[in-house]
Amino acid sequence: MTATIRARRAAVTTAVTTLALGATLASAPAQAAATSSSENTARTSGTAGLKGVDYDTWQRDVKAVIDEARPYVTERTRDPRGRKQAVVLDIDNSSLETDFHWTTFPTPAIRSVLELVRYAHERGAAVFFVTARPGILESVTAYNLRAVGYPVSGVYVRHFPDLFQGVSTYKTAKRAEIEAKGYTIIANIGNNTTDLVGGHAERTFKLPDYDGKLS
To answer: In the record, which residues are listed under signal peptide (predicted)?
Structure first.
């Protein structure tokens, strides 16, 4: 991981933490209104992310991957093979539009990802989120996901001693934990190779990260 990416992630985490600590002062209707306004602005103004990635291009590229995933999810959930099924997702720029709304709380969902996840859940799949965010953000992260419409079966964040593991090692271990609970992970979705390597998923779907700009 480059120093630039580490610095950017630290900035995003700091911003999310600050917003999260202040979130209890805002009402849910006010938060929803702010989110809707932010989404509309981004979708009509060609907003760029923290590293200059074009929002509309990113949305199209994400949707192309999700369009590939949907027929597979449809077919796989039609045949559960007698086991509980699950979908596992990364969060930042994989489930939430973090780099495009890093000062907004709740951070908006990526619409095409949200639609696929809700579809899978309606067809019986549990939905787990495995993120490299630190444990201090667990409650606000779960709140954010639910507030923007995600079904949440579980959220995994990095507590001690996970903070000292490599991200891919940590995420692989958490998927193994989900499997140990009796789930078959039919799809693992993320925008970084560290979200996807290590096995413990039947299929992986990589969203765009533009050489680490949206990690």
So the answer is: 1-32
Q: Which helix (H) or strand (E) holds 128?
A: strand 126-134
Q: Which domain holds residue 148?
A: 3-206
Identify the residue whose tokens are 């209890």. 24
In-domain check, residue 80: yes
Angle at 125 between CA 121 and CA 131, to 5 degrees: 90
Q: How does pLDDT run across 47-56, given as a tens digit for each residue?
A: 777 778 999 9
**Token pair for residue 29?**
């209707």
CATH code (residue 140): 3.40.50.1000
Q: Go through 104-127 and write b for each residue having 16 or more CB atoms within 10 A of its CB, e for each that does not.
A: bbbbbbbbbbbebbeebbeeebbb
- Calculate mean pLDDT across residues 153-178: 91
Residue 213 domain-assigned?
A: no
Give the strand order in the sheet containing 84-89: 154-158, 126-134, 84-89, 183-190, 204-206
Considering its fold, how many domains does the chain have in total? 1
Helix (H, G, I), strand (E, B) or coil at 92: strand
